[in-house]
Structures are given as C-alpha cells and as structure tokens.
Amino acid sequence: MKNINSLCVFCGSRFGNDPAYEQTARELGAVMADKGIRLIYGGGGIGLMGVVANAVMENGGEVIGVIPKFFDEMEVGKLDITKLIITNNMHERKSKMFELSDGFISLPGGLGTLDETFEIMTWKHLKVHSKPVIILDVAGYWSELSALINALISKGFADQRIKGMYHIVGNTAEVFATLDSFSSSNGYLQPKNG
Q1: What is the CATH number of the domain that holds 161?
Q2: What residue numbers bound the domain in which 163 lies?
Q3: Angle between helices 111-125 and 90-100 in degrees, nearest 10
Q4: What is the CB neighbour count within 10 angstroms for residue 151?
Q5: Could you write out the DSSP letters of every residue in 53-89?
Q6: How many C-alpha atoms does 68 have within 13 Å on its Cβ side?
Q7: Would residue 186 count as lying in a domain?
Q8: Each residue's pLDDT tens digit, 42-92
Q9: What is the pTM of this model?
Q10: What percentage of the chain's residues is helix, strand, coil (to nearest 5)?
Q11: 189 - beta bridge partners?
C-alpha cells in the first residue's frame, strides 16, 4: 500500500443493532495495526470508535484521536491511545483529521458519520484532495447510498463522475485490496493501469 501510512476511520459513537458492525470495526483495527497503518479517528472511547481504536492499540498499532474540547470535557475522549489532539470545534477537528490522513474509511454510524463521509466526498469533488474514500458496507448498512447517489444524478444535480469519488466494499479484505489496486488521480479513484 504505497503512500498509505494513516487512514481516517469515520464511525459511530454507538454500537448499532447488528453485531457485525462491532466485529468489523474490531477486524479493521487489527488489520490496520498488522499492516503498520496509523488510525486517525474522532478520539472517542465509546461505540464503534472505541472498538476500532482498542483493536489497533491491542495489536500494537498507533492511534491518533482528534476531539473537540467540548466532547473531551464530557469525558468522552479516549486517553489510552498514542495521542489525543484537542480542537476548539468540530470544523477544526475535521480539518485536522483530514490533514493527518492518507485516506478515509466509513463504517456504520449516525449523523456525525454521515456528515464526515459526505464532507470528505464533497472536498474530493471540489478537488481539495485526491485521497481514497472507501465505504465499508457492513451488513448492508450503506445500501441506500447508491440509490441516493443515483437520484442525485437522475435529477440533474450531479453527473456519473461522482461515482468515482468513493468505492463501496463489503469486507475488510476488500478495503485493503482496493487500496492496493487503486491510485488517486484528478480527485477520483482510477485503476493503476487504466
């Protein structure tokens, strides 16, 4: 995985109602640690965020959490990680996570995860970055995303190119296969030989 030293994982501060969400978060963290890829994430110790961070740490990896001051004051911040960065607000948090990351993975989550996922896709569309964006569709969680993107296209608010801004995969192995198979070009995922 050339040029991928750190991955930002967007995911929920809750566990969700399917055990597959937690299992996949744990597996993703373990594989990241095994591959020597640093986790950048929202800094929380609860829900899937806590699961993925714990998995990286338990397997000898490095974890950098980025959390706004008001969250940390509510004792949500996870202290038993490599480094916890405190920001003034949510906007600074997302900017710092972006700055520290070579790519992005979205697991299941709530409004915050949706916000982060769509913002990083929007930045890519606007050519702010050309980093890979991977949606890990655990147990069909993201199945409506394709329908929504198709609706944006069919209703004239986007063109087919936006489908190249992200890649939907079904399991952890496919995350890393995708990172191995694709390089970024012009803000969209392009095959290395294509």
Answers
A1: 3.40.50.450
A2: 6-180
A3: 60
A4: 12
A5: HHHHHHTT--EEEEEEHHHHHTT-B--SSSEEEEESS
A6: 11
A7: no
A8: 999 999 999 999 999 999 999 999 999 988 777 678 889 999 999 999 999
A9: 0.91
A10: 45, 20, 35
A11: 184
